[in-house]
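User: Can you recover a sequence for this backbone? Please restate the input before giving your answer.

Assistant: Of course. Working from this structure:
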């Protein structure tokens, strides 16, 4: 041990060495507020949680998973390889199945899409891949453009990597191409274009807004990313986590389908359509991005759990996954209708609200009046806790803005509660809004 490391012991004084953590560890910050709210929901089942972004609990595919495990373990060769390490990039048959499914969804052949299993990597959930891609692309101070608001875990990753998330205006159709272009031009005028490494877009039933990016905007956004790739390539990181939960007949093609394969990294997951407990995600990556991502992944885990990958593959092959997802779309569709009706009946008569009814996914994003504070330390949140309901305060979903972030939005997650509890939860939001508006004393009682 070098002398200096002994010094606090040898001096004879009872000095306690100060722990030194990396800058990145310090930048990671505390647990996001949504995780705190999830823990709160689990600890207090009597509270109606419209905050936790869990998939519906009671419809998790217990029987389908039991059958898939049974089928895997009943063949000794399959069983043995499922219990062994796999490769860093992932289980080949699953990667091929992902390419085939993607091609079917895009209505084109894999070669027309420039998609092949060699470019597909499997990760333990798509969030891991999001981290790996951003870690590959960002140096401290680099910029990722994203919708404002956006997926709060993405914001946490960028902060962790000491990058900078810059918000782009969205409307009812998702990210506004003109706003993206304006922001890029502004950054170019400031000599900062070289810092822009990526544009992050959750393209189907976004978290937190529930909005699906309109089809005509997709080729425009890809075109903008390419045109502004001057000093360095600007990638689009397309997060399609909720694609399989998109209800109805309108199923836009991915941004990736408008690319030749060099710009867009497309991320998907089986967490939402099947089971987050199994946690299998994937990405179809530009080939030059794949190698550095795999190098990082090699250091991280040198391969995601083989058992889980083979389980998902089995459920894909025997059709269980698709029929389960079909059932989920029906259930969520019904819950969206219940949520919208309850918002009209119980919240709108009390306070003006605006929201876009989603076509699927797990969330509705509600705007309240600009002066109405939905923050976690505000009167409305406290009144909601008194009424026995939790929501996700919208403030946690915005990238930093010079003039502060809006504090008048809430994200409602309709997936977990039964339709009846959903109605009760939204009625409780209404009572809390009335209490807050009227400045009733109970609204500011701390828990
Ligand atoms: C937009 C978005 N992307 C990615 C994920 C990560 O999902 P997983 O890591 O389970 O695949 C989530 C999970 O909530 C999400 O909302």
């Amino acid at each position: 041990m070098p002398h200096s490391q002994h010094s606090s012991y040898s001096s004879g004084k009872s000095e306690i060495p100060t722990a030194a953590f990396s800058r990145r560890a310090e930048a990671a910050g505390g647990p996001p507020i949504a995780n705190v709210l999830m823990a709160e929901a689990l600890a207090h089942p009597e509270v109606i949680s419209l905050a936790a972004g869990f998939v519906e609990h009671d419809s998790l595919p217990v029987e389908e998973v039991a059958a898939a495990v049974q089928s895997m373990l009943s063949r000794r060769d399959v069983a043995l390889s499922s219990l062994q390490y796999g490769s860093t990039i992932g289980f080949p048959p699953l990667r091929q199945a992902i390419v085939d499914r993607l091609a079917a969804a895009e209505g084109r052949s894999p070669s027309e899409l420039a998609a092949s299993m060699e470019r597909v990597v499997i990760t333990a959930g798509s969030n891991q891949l999001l981290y790996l891609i951003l870690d590959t692309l960002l140096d401290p101070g680099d910029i990722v453009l994203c919708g404002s608001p956006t997926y709060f875990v993405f914001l946490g990753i960028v902060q962790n990597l000491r990058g900078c998330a810059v918000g782009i205006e969205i409307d009812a159709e998702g990210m506004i191409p003109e706003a993206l272009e304006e922001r890029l031009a502004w950054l170019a005028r400031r000599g900062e274009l070289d810092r822009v490494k990526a544009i992050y877009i959750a393209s189907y039933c976004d978290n937190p807004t529930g909005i699906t990016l309109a089809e005509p905007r997709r080729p425009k956004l890809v075109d903008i990313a390419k045109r502004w790739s001057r000093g360095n390539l600007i990638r689009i990181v397309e997060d399609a986590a909720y694609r399989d939960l998109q209800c109805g007949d309108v199923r836009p093609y991915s941004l990736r389908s408008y690319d030749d394969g060099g710009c867009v990294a497309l991320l998907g997951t089986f967490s939402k359509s099947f089971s987050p407990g199994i946690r299998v995600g994937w990405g179809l990556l530009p080939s030059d991005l794949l190698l550095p991502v795999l190098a990082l992944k090699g250091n991280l885990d040198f391969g995601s759990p083989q058992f889980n990958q083979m389980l998902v593959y089995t459920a894909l092959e025997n059709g269980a996954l698709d029929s389960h997802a079909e059932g989920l779309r029906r259930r969520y569709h019904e819950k969206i209708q219940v949520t919208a009706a309850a918002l009209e009946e119980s919240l709108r008569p009390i306070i003006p609200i605006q929201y876009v009814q989603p076509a699927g996914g797990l969330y509705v994003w509600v705007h309240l009046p600009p002066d109405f504070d939905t923050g976690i330390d505000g009167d409305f949140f406290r009144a909601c806790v008194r009424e026995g309901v939790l929501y996700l305060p919208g403030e946690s979903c915005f990238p930093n803005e010079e003039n502060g972030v809006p504090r008048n939005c809430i994200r409602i997650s309709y997936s977990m509660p039964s339709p009846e509890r959903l109605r009760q939860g939204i009625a409780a939001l209404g009572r809390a809004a009335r209490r807050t508006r009227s400045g009733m004393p109970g609204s500011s009682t701390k828990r």
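That completes the design. Confidence is low (pLDDT under 50) at residues 1-10, 441-447.
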